[in-house]
Amino acid sequence: MHESIYTPVPLPWQQEQWQLLMQNQRAQRLSHALLFTGPKGVGKAQFAKALAMALYCQQANAQYQACLQCSQCQLLLNDTHPDYFYIHPEETSRIIKIEQVRQLVSELQMTSQQGGWKIVIIDRAEQLNTAAANALLKTLEEPRQNSLLILLNEQISQVLATLRSRCQIYKFPAVKTDQASTWLKQNCEASNIEELLFFAPGAPLLAKHFTEANFAEHRQHWLAQFQALLTQKIDPLMIAKQCSDDEPARVLWYWQLLVTAMIQTLATTVTRQDLPENIQAIIQRGIALFTADELLERWQHLLKAHQQLMMQSSSNKQLLLESVFIQWIK
Ligand SMILES: [Zn+2]
After folding, report:
1. 54 contact partners, CB below 8 Å, separation of at least 6
2. Rounded CA gap, 152 and 175, in Å?
3. Stated pTM of the model
4. Which of 89, 234, 297, 305 has its CA 20 to 30 A from that of 21?
5. What is the CATH number of the domain that holds 280?
6. Distance from residue 12's CA to the centre of ligand 1 (Å)
């Protein structure tokens, strides 16, 4: 996802976490290390940035909202604040490198240039390997005053236990559909909000991200492929090959959501009329072909394959994808 913008307020569904954090700050109970955990697309980075702004701002109001005007706010808005760092895995490596962390640690040990907070946000903290985490732990054990480390992560169990245990943890759960939908209506021009939330359930920021043209095209292409698979118009080995060359983790995620909807439709006998016709057609075709047990079995296989792809633990991607798609031939 694109790096998020600064807003002086948390998102509407983050009020509880904001109040809790501010309470801790007022009572001087704010830890030097925070871990924000929750699914992708719920706005953890936005929240962390709003917090950074609130702490840096020289004239934040009683609700800790930054003014956006003072010199500290301006430095942040221009991305030139010398005491603020935002790091994330580099695109190609997918891991946070030990060099990145070492540099950070030495920065944190120096006095702040503006005389206030030193704040570091580490996105996708599960990508810190043992060496990187150990380097960080030292700073956590002897924190400087006014230093704050904020780790962001999707699945808390994936963060190294040694790191986790030293953090104050704040949870950011999936956003309720009506709340997500209201926010999307106010913040993007899309007319297909139900569809966007179908592919980004509980994750309004991810749904907004999906409104970009290339995502819509990618999604429509794969919806047509899934329909072709279920109507036996395409060879599952062919679809596996195409998938392997075209963001397989995302394609399997789409497929997983569609199969989930098939299972839900069978279980509740309620048809989602709000969804576009091509999605409804796939769901109907799936439940006409397979029983609930058969769908569940395929769903579990799909989930496992998706996890393997995400962890990059599969040595043969092609074979893994073939095993997924071949199951949909009757
Ligand atoms: Zn300000």
Report:
1. 8, 22, 60, 64, 65, 66
2. 17
3. 0.87
4. 89
5. 1.20.272
6. 21
Domain count, the chain: 2
Residue 137 φ/ψ, nearest 5 degrees: -55, -35
- Are both 41 and 153 inside the same structural domain? yes
Instruction: Give the pLDDT band (50/70/90) at residue 2.
Output: very low
User: What percentage of the chain has pLDDT greater than the value 90?
Assistant: 67
In this prediction, residue 325 carries a pLDDT of 96
Whether residues 48 and 156 share a domain: the answer is yes
Could you tell me the distance, in angstroms and rounded to a whole number, from the CA of residue 70 to the centre of ligand 1?
A: 4
pLDDT at res. 3: 46
The pair of structure tokens assigned to 31 is: 């830890």
Whether 265 is in a domain gets the answer yes
* 87 touches 104 (CB < 8 A): yes
Instruction: State which H helix or E strand residue 158 sits in.
Output: none
How far does residue 18's CA lie from ligand 1's centre (Å)? Answer: 18
Backbone angles phi, psi at 269, to 5 degrees: 55, 25
Same domain flag for 20 and 162 = yes
CA of 53 to the centre of ligand 1 (A): 7
Last residue of a domain, one of 171, 191, 226: 171
- How far is the centre of ligand 1, averaged over its atoms, from the C-alpha of 122 (Å)? 23
- Looking at the fold, whether 16 and 164 belong to one and the same domain comes out as yes
Are 243 and 301 in the same domain?
Answer: yes
Answer whether residue 194 is part of any domain: no
Sheet holding 168-171, edge to edge: 84-87, 118-122, 147-153, 33-37, 168-171
The answer on 148 and 238 residing in a single domain is no
CB contact burial 65-81 (16+ within 10 A = b; e otherwise): bbeeeeebbebbeeeeb
- Alpha-carbon distance 150 to 48, whole Å? 7
CA 221/CA 231 separation, integer angstroms: 16
Same structural domain for residues 159 and 259?
Answer: no
